[in-house]
Amino acid sequence: MRVSNAFYVPGEQRAEKVNDLFGTIARRYDLINDLQSFGLHRRWKRRVVDLAAVTPGARALDLCCGTGDLALALARRGASVTGLDFSAPMLAVAARRRRGPNPEFRQGDALQIPFPDHSFDIVTIGYGLRNLADWKAGLAEMKRVAKPGGRIVILEFGKPANALWRSLYFTHLKCSVPLTGWIFCGNARAYAYILESLRHYPAQLAVAAQLREIKLTGVRVINLLGGAMAINYAEKPG
How many domains does the chain have? Predict the structure, then answer.
């Protein structure tokens, strides 16, 4: 498949290009998320936190934490949270939003999570899985650091099953989203990346199949907005 976006490069350079992308958009990231999703991303993230089923004192890891939405929400529910991201500019925004020591924000790679096996009761990732150079390896790492009985919750762009809705949705990603990026961030290509990355990403059903392949249990797909967004849920066997 021909690659048509400067920020999407398969293979070993993938992480470097994604890092460049988020460094470019960090300052306006939250504003543009609100504009592009009409604020709905906040509702979807609340659904992730609900599914995480936080209990007092639970340890949570939010991968590709970005500006900290999920990490901060998990902390408000009573979890002890670590947010991990490799983009220093995004982490700087997250740190400014924090009130107190929790969450802890750390720079690191979701493909080489700097924690031992069986460390976390909850592992989340919001809009990060499709950005990994190897999404299957990312799932394996999530399983590795989850405790037995731990919950893994993934929020990501999806591919609607309905052909007409999928066509309309992809047209929105091709036209409206880059235009918003150009107006508010001065960079249309950074937001055209969303569609390019989604074309290369197998989406919610393949993610669910892989979660079953690596022997996670309770696997569920929760489609949002007709499958344009999706939550994948799984648990590590006790």
Answer: 1
Q: What is the pTM of this model?
A: 0.85
Compute the half-sphere exposure of residue 138: CA atoms within 13 Å on the CB side of its CA.
24
Task: Please list, residue by residue across 164-195, b when 16 or more beta carbons sit within 10 angstroms of its beta carbon and e when fewer do.
Answer: eebeebbeebeeebbebbeeebebebbbbbbb
Residues 85/19, Cβ–Cβ less than 8 Å = no
Note the pLDDT tens digit of each residue in 213-238. 999 999 999 999 999 999 999 999 98
176 within domain boundaries: yes
137 part of a folded domain: yes
What is the CATH classification number for the domain harbouring 31? 3.40.50.150
Among candidates 214, 219, 212, 216, which has minimal Cα distance to 237? 216
